[in-house]
Design goal:
This protein is 57% helix and 13% strand. The chain has 408 residues and is an alpha+beta fold. It folds into 2 domains: 188 residues, no CATH class; 175 residues, no CATH class. Strands 5-6-4-7-3-2-8-1-9 form a 9-stranded mixed beta sheet, with helices on both faces. α2 crosses α10 and α8 packs parallel to α11. The longest helix has 42 residues.
Length: 408
Amino acid sequence: MLNKNLNLNLALKNIKKRPLRNFCIILSILILAFLLFAGSVLFMGLSDGAASIANRLGADIMLVPSGYDPHTGSVLLSGKPSSFYLPADALDRLKKINLNPDIDIGIAAMSPQTFLATINASCCSYPVQLIGIDYTSDFIVKPWLESAIHRELNDGEIIVGYHVAGQPGETLKFWSKDLLIAGRLDQTGMGFDAAVFMNKNTINMLALEAERILGRKLSNDGSKISVIMLKLKPGYDSVAASIELNRQLNDHGIYALFSKKFVNNIGNSLAFIASIIKIILFIVWGFAVIITALLFTLPLAERKGEMAILRVLGASRNKLTGLILSEALLTSLYGAILGAVLAAAAVYALSPLVIEKLKMPFLLPDIYNLILLFIGAVLITVLTGVTASGYAAFKAGRSDIYEAARAN
């Protein structure tokens, strides 16, 4: 009787004896594991990011300057610093429409926000997006800003996004003004992670300082409002309301963007990216199966003598089958673990670049989900490798191998 550990011991020796063939097997398995883990993380990160922006963007309609719709998206998604402003009378015009009894579009709340891009900042080696909110009317940002400090922001205080350097109690300099960090936000996967938040008084102070330093006005009419967020009463249609607002306001340089369209565009982009990921993974999986099967099957003719010797030593046909499967298990395990580890390192290092290039909200899964994805990628890849070697294992256990070897 052969020792119970014969298959694994012989499999390990066979792997070492045939480094080139097994390197190719391990490489194909490694690529599969890498793409499976990285693709799963990318898909989950984009899904969570899209859910995050849908939850955070609680407005039904956003009023933005005509022609600045793409800039609004860049602020929310990528955090690209931008400074753009609605006409100074935009809020007054909106209030008149809302008070007009002949035009009932169901506005329940409206809140302005101010965007101001810095030239540089002590927290970063690149410009930062500053966002000012009106605490008296805000219904979107204020709740999760207050969750970070459990109170309203005072003048001269800021809350920094997840990717902005600085801890509570420290100060950051923007436009020559030192501001106190009151808190930090949890990761959102949006441009908010690279933004700095403050109240209306603080952003107006910085805007005046920016104008002094730049030597020019930020807007032609002195406006300090970038967007106006609208919340509709229950039962009112945001599409119909935005159409009516555009009819009333387009001639004044104001454009109404209903946020569902914005979120739906993200969803459509996500669905397209997900389809590409699935196609790539399927193609790679197919190639991995074919390559692994060929690399195990083709050398069998050269291994007839080896199989015959093992039979003479008492190895059963099942033992020979198990030997091939053991080799597949070990090589697949090596490749799967190495591929998943490399993928984890790549995800950690390249996730900021992914956010920047895709222009999509992205939330890196937490450590628990990352571990589950890692284990799942390894198990699926190993199972693929072992399954792909099934035909070779079957042939190894056939009696004609032993008979042909004896005839030789």
